Amino acid sequence: xxxxxxxxxxxxxxxxxxxxxxxxxxxxxxxxxxxxxxxxxxxxxxxxxxxxxxxxxxxxxxxxxxxxxxxxxxxxxxxxxxxxxxxxxxxxxxxxxxxxxxxxxxxxxxxxxxxxxxxxxxxxxxxxxxxxxxxxxxxxxxxxxxxxxxxxxxxxxxxxxxxxxxxxxxxxxxxxxxxxxxxxxxxxxxxxxxxxxxxxxxxxxxxxxxxxxxxxxxxxxxxxxxxxxxxxxxxxxxxxxxxxxxxxxxxxxxxxxxxxxxxxxxxxxxxxxxxxxxxxxxxxxxxxxxxxxxxxxxxxxxxxxxxxxxxxxxxxxxxxxxxxxxxxxxxxxxxxxxxxxxxxxxxxxxxxxxxxxxxxxxxxxxxxxxxxxxxxxxxxxxxxxxxx
Amino acid sequence: xxxxxxxxxxxxxxxxxxxxxxxxxxxxxxxxxxxxxxxxxxxxxxxxxxxxxxxxxxxxxxxxxxxxxxxxxxxxxxxxxxxxxxxxxxxxxxxxxxxxxxxxxxxxxxxxxxxxxxxxxxxxxxxxxxxxxxxxxxxxxxxxxxxxxxxxxxxxxxxxxxxxxxxxxxxxxxxxxxxxxxxxxxxxxxxxxxxxxxxxxxxxxxxxxxxxxxxxxxxxxxxxxxxxxxxxxxxxxxxxxxxxxxxxxxxxxxxxxxxxxxxxxxxxxxxxxxxxxxxxxxxxxxxxxxxxxxxxxxxxxxxxxxxxxxxxxxxxxxxxxxxxxxxxxxxxxxxxxxxxxxxxxxxxxxxxxxxxxxxxxxxxxxxxxxxxxxxxxxxxxxxxxxxxxxxxxxxxxxxxxxxxxxxxxxxxxxxxxxxxxxxxxxxxxxxxx
Lengths: 388, 433
Fold this sequence. Notes:
The structure holds two protein chains of two kinds.
Chain A: H1 3-24, H2 26-33, E1 37-39, E2 46-49, E3 65-70, E4 77-81, H3 90-101, E5 103-106, E6 108-112, E7 132-137, E8 140-145, E9 163-164, E10 171-172, H4 192-206, E11 211-218, E12 227-230, H5 235-248, E13 253-256, H6 265-272, E14 276-283, H7 296-301, H8 305-312, H9 328-349, E15 356-358, H10 362-368, E16 385-387
Parallel strand pairs in A: 4-6, 4-11, 11-14, 12-13
Antiparallel strand pairs in A: 1-16, 2-3, 3-6, 5-15, 7-8, 9-10, 12-14
Helix pairs in contact in A: 3-9, 5-9, 9-10
Chain B: H1 3-25, H2 28-42, H3 49-56, H4 60-78, H5 81-93, H6 97-115, H7 118-135, H8 140-156, H9 162-170, H10 179-198, H11 206-212, H12 222-241, H13 250-264, H14 272-306, H15 308-317, H16 321-339, H17 342-357, H18 362-374, H19 384-393, H20 399-422, H21 424-427
Helix pairs in contact in B: 1-2, 2-14, 3-14, 4-7, 4-13, 4-14, 5-7, 5-12, 6-7, 6-8, 6-10, 7-8, 7-19, 8-10, 8-18, 8-19, 8-20, 9-17, 9-18, 10-20, 12-13, 14-19, 16-17, 16-18, 17-18, 18-20
């Protein structure tokens, strides 16, 4: 090949690469630009940016809004933390359903729907996640992002070769430096994810939050699936809540936060604040590694043949039947029921911390689907519509 | 069509596409992209441009590490520091062959142990070690095998073992108690590797060796040669032991700082133009490896999207324990060759739970699997450490002949790992918290 032909070939390949980049990044750019809509309930009192509690995240994607629903009646307080892991979509959706339907008769409720907003702006590399999923409602479809487990490298790069957790100095895998649920209680001079954890810890301390509920989804091959993981100060109320849920609504286990496992909300919020720290896990086949094609349908239904094989071989830690799968309705419904019950138990154990709260029940969501509880922003008062 | 049938059909089409395109293009990188394209088409995804583009970024960090580490080492060689170190080792330890080989093995273990990346060991000290091994009479294929084996052992060695960390994170285990249970097998296998590969090697006389080396630059003093390596060691130790004080700069910047330090200690003060040439040559040298990483990233993304990844994973983890024993030595390395550290997440974590269910000591099990995964760093499609090793040492023989030279220590490492997997209780005394 002569020089001219070689140059021509190289220019051609360069142009083809550029064209692929333009076409191929369309979905990637759309995911980063898209904002979800929420129509808050009439119980909404105020919202404040998370940087109100720690200025070190101001102006970043992590400076997410904190929504407050205050009854004005003395009582306890609860923080619902959604979206710490953006690739566990039932978590932010549960927070949105709460925000759209909550009524508060005593105490107050704080909600962060996208605790790691940055993580929700990219797909998980190597996992081929679809960028969005849609929920059917009586008035149309509502679109939500499926993100990554960790903070977007566009916000925080590079990773260290090992992440040293503050303040325990425990070594964790390098990518955990971008994992919001490994960086608590946070470090004011740390990386963006550590600073975000610190901001949330500050919120809990300054607002004297009585109970923090961190909402997650787990792969079904993970022993703590369908489980409350609670700091030892909260273990009795978690045990009681799990017993009642298992008897009346759905199977729920409980586990006390291991003291040697550092950086997680159920350990560090319990140790470094006065709050009762509770983490909830619901079964999510989509994030298991031995499932079939990665599709929006799998995320919404949880129906998968390979998962059934794993269940038949006894490899799963929750009951699974491919005919019913683990639908988004089921997972969100579990979280709604799980949060309501453990809040109720806090009031039983500590009457001064009682929070009078209600939102759609597990049974109602299973009957009508979550779409029935998501409101049309076009028909709502502008003051109640937020994009985020 | 059932998911099993559909994904099996896709897998068959991808295997056929890989074989045919390898034969037609003679390029593993192009073949992987063609295979991904065929997989997407057969699975009914059409041409998912965003998955292709997203896949190219999967190993971006690794590509930066390759490029910057090579810039550093080529700069280090350019100033004559590498030559000075080789000469110093020959002068001091020439008469003590086995001691010299053991020192070289320990030198290889340190960078990877501190960073968790075997490729860093190969890139940073592989060239130096290869030069000395050659002078000590080791055949070329054994030199490449030595650098590769110590490279993968360095990644397994504590304190940083990324596979074990990923499995521990997935299984909600703290990454503690691994130091001895990783270190002892690594030292045993390293000692065997040294003995096996060094056996029968006859060093040339010291005078002949020194005469065969490039002349020592008169201004290249020991401290000039030591400073860049000391800076690298200080940065690595600082990142681990002063993590709350120092900013996170990452490997690429660490290597660029070391390269800048090398330029600063250059006794000859080469012009900027010469350094630009060194950078250009380095990028040319590393380009094939970076191309491999890009292609593997695309292939991995399509394997996940089509469900073929799930098919392979469920076929393995659903085996009875005896089946896992029988196939681990093949499946785990092959998974590493395809998925890199992702192998620990996709196969490793579910297997930890499988072994936990039968009451095995999961710290020993995770350590064993980390060794099995490490073995795959010489296997296609990525062959990361294997390819880096042969390129760093300048091995001219076929890749197959390199694998043949590596086979015995590779198998010994596999057998040690399998033994730990089958009778983890016997190694449990090494788990110290």
